[in-house]
Amino acid sequence: MLRLPKFQMEEPSDVAGAVALMTEHGEDAIVVAGGTDLYPNMKHGLFEPKVVVSLGRIDAMRNIEKLEGGGLRIGAMVTLAEMAASEAVQERAPALAHAASLVAGPQLRTMGTAGGNVMLDTRCQWYNQTYFWRKSLGYCLKKDGTVCHVVQGGRKCVAAASNDTAPVLMSLNASVTFASSEGTRDVLVDEMWKADGIWNKKAERAEILTSIHVPAQAAGHRGTYGKLRDRGSIDYPLFGCAVRLDVSDEGVVEDADVVCVALVARPLRIKKVADTLRGKKVGSEDFTAAVQEVADLAHAQAKPMDNIPGESIYRRQMVPVYVRRTLMAAADGTGPVHHV
Fold first, then answer.
1. pLDDT tens across 162-220, in order?
2. Contact of 333 with 252, CB cutoff 8 Å
3. Is the pTM value of this prediction over 0.85?
4. Contact present, 198 and 159 (Cβ < 8 Å)
5. Average per-residue pLDDT for the chain
6. Strand ranges in 252-300 using DSSP code E only, listed in sequence order
7. Continuous segment of H or E residues that includes residue 209
8. Confidence band (pLDDT; 50, 70, 90) for 232?
9. For the CA atoms of 189, 110, 328, 304, what is the dihedral angle to 10 degrees?
10. Strand order in the sheet with 8-10
11. Fewest Cβ atoms nearer than 10 Å: which of 30, 102, 169, 234?
12. CA distance 110 to 80
């Protein structure tokens, strides 16, 4: 049985207290929200903090607020289950509710949080293993070693971004707020990623994500999320894609976006999506042909690697399938696309 290592738990009641603790303990401290990812990783020896700063008692981070004009403010400690069930999120950002509803299983969504999913550590089948397994292999670039087992001779970690909500937030032009000893700062989700699987965020590890802001969407906004995984629940994505369609009153596409995840260290926006779909009337033969063209674009641009479980060849074959299905589901308003 894997056991947690010894650590000191701190439970501040406000953001200022959490920031003070992170500043005081520096590299010895780590933040925990729901703990659904951090605690298993600690059991595997992937993180070895002396101090764990829990955000669980900070009530100010637990609200979903409808903003004037149609936007949303979502506290980082809102659970994924709450976000999926929220009428406000379902109405104003349906793809975000869909993605949250597909994270892991019901028990984990009850504990896992909106902020925690955005800040999820990158994953790799050579990294997310027990200490004994990794030691026998000689470790890897991401933790304790010097060799990449995915790319022969590779010098940059390619562990995959696997957070289901991240591509959705990018497609919605969302931003997040970080708090630190320097104050607070807002960062577009689209701009917060690095191509570095060891730490793929443009944020200091001591910074605390406090809230997510989703701006008002276009009047004809439609969106959903598609997720490929081995089972209908529990699993991380083998491939995920977020779709946004902005449709006029006449049913014509005015703007569109497709963002994919579970490929490399950062989510990937598919190029030329808006140019391909713009001007096409939903339900027409031209629209169907344009959707297939976007699926082909995704197949050319999204190239899964052998960094997460599942054959990379199969995952790449499924890229155009899931992009096509998810675009059609968004157009039809039929909800998320996933393995059942």
1. 999 999 999 999 999 999 999 999 999 999 999 999 999 999 999 999 999 999 999 99
2. no
3. yes
4. yes
5. 97
6. 253-261, 268-269
7. strand 208-214
8. confident
9. 60
10. 8-10, 51-54, 29-32
11. 234
12. 7
Q: What residues contact 255, with CB distance under 8 A and at least 6 apart?
A: 218, 244, 245, 246, 274, 278
Which domains are seen in the chain, by residue range?
A: 6-54 (3.30.43.10), 61-119+160-214 (3.30.465.10), 221-331 (3.30.390.50)
Question: How far apart are alpha carbons 330 and 223 in whole angstroms?
Answer: 5
Burial class (CB in 10 A: 0-12, 13-18, 19+), 112: buried
Strands 208-214 and 239-247, by their bridges, are unpaired
Q: Is the pLDDT of residue 340 over 70?
A: no
- CA geometry: angle at 238 spanning 327 and 124, to 5°? 140
- Where do the H-state alpha helices sit in 103-201? 106-111, 114-118, 131-137, 165-171
Taking the C-alpha atoms of residue 160 and residue 125, their distance in angstroms, rounded to an integer, is 10
Tokens 């054959």 label which residue?
A: 311
For 12-67, what is each residue's pLDDT tens digit?
A: 999 999 999 999 999 999 999 999 999 999 999 999 999 999 999 999 999 999 99
Q: 330, 322 in Cβ contact below 8 A? A: no
Rg of the chain over CA atoms, in angstroms? 20
- Residue 331 phi/psi, 5-degree rounding, is -65, -40
